[in-house]
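Tutorial, part two.
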Amino acid sequence: MINPAMIFRLKSSWEKFTASHPKFPMFLQAAVNNNVLREGTILEINITTPEGQNISTNLKINPEDLELIEDLKNMTR
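Running the prediction step on this input gives:
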């Protein structure tokens, strides 16, 4: 069962995050609006530390991922 207090905490954390990084939600919205998050799309994530260390990974979106994306979209409405 989902803890309602945790949902409110996540909502507050997300609001702080988006206030600090306003381009990120716009990027996600553009991905949804342009239908680029579909089966077979490759999502790549790169991280660079202040010291210059890099780490990256990628994943190919599958039908189960699309279900999660749809659930998250519905949750935010």
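The chain is about 55% helix and 20% strand. In part three we will examine how such features are distributed along the chain.
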